[in-house]
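User: Please run a holo structure prediction.
Assistant: Happy to. Please share the sequence and the ligand.
User: Here you go; the ligand is iron/sulfur cluster.
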Amino acid sequence: MQYRTYGKLGFQVSALGMGCMRLPRIIDKQKNESQVDREKAFELIRYGVEQGITYFDTAYGYHNMTSEAILGEALGQGLREKVRIVTKQPFGVMKTQADIRRNLEQTLKKLRTDYIDVYLIHNIQAPIWEEIKQRQIIEAYEQFRREGLIRGIGFSYHGLLPAFKDILAYYPWDMCQIQQNFIDVEREATAEAIRLAGQKGCALVIMEPLRGGCLANPPLQIQRIYDAYPVKRSAVEWAFRHLINYPEISTILSGVTTLPQLKEDIQIFSQPDAVPGCLSAEEQHILSQVKATYESLTSIPCTGCEYCLPCPHGVHIPGVFRQYNDGVMFGVFDQPKRGYMLMGRQNQDASQCKACGTCEARCPQHIPIIQELQTAHEALKGWIE
Ligand code: SF4
Ligand code: SF4
């Protein structure tokens, strides 16, 4: 296993981290619910530790608030001290200082530990950033650090570069966690966020390196590009190598669900050349070709310009189209469906559309938005969490 330095906190972590958001599940379709398959999850976590993974990422809310407890139980019997545990508290449950402390106490209990290595504000987004500052969440986290309950302070972020820059510049964070992969170099916080975090000495952790697993199973036209290269690698390895190549990244999270996936990941991150600078110019060009080919597969020509917003009924039109295009592009709708379900919780999904037509008049691409929203809704609805 390759190891890297964790920003200014200075400790070493495995370059492969295990994300505990996609633990194996047992789905009960009749009851419309699911729960973690505990035995399989324990097997994965313990095997990861045995093989040298020292970084585990979870969150208060993952798996209907059971992920922390599963991880804590799996790391019993002396494994906790061998690893770094990172978890996150969501903004929605941090209404008062008492809430913030109570939630941390619950998390410590679930994780069966006296301290969290790095404690994150979960999923900071531009619209809630001002309120995060007003609620004095960072100040509460600083107090926890003085008490020895947490050792580092960070945030996870899904959003665009401008807000990321503001958040990063506001506070001397110990770490930040962002979505990146070779499809997203110009999307989300972009590859520029990697450079900026590195400049500040902020440990950088990457989530969604395989875009929810979508990059693991490429369509034929993309597989042909990989196959034409003399060095044979799986699509998973290509995607990981894109990120391993950055010296600023401390850990790349993989949300493994099965033991074979975990074994493949460990093998990739254990190679002697799985280090920064591992991609040649030719290999980077191949990944650019792969990215362009994926993008040519999308079906709604939405550029994300947001000229159609705001919708008077709250529909996040480019967000809906992005989820749909991702499903079409990768031929797999699991991740987009989950994202769409989360949009629905914020009343931003296509079911809110009242067909007023305001947006269509503003769209420079002349997209029949009302009709395409219906198509997207049919394809994306029905995710069971
Ligand atoms: S047509 Fe639908 S999505 Fe477009 S502005 Fe009206 S309500 Fe919003
Ligand atoms: S205006 Fe059209 S292209 Fe721009 S985000 Fe809206 S739907 Fe997409």
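The chain has a mean pLDDT of 93.
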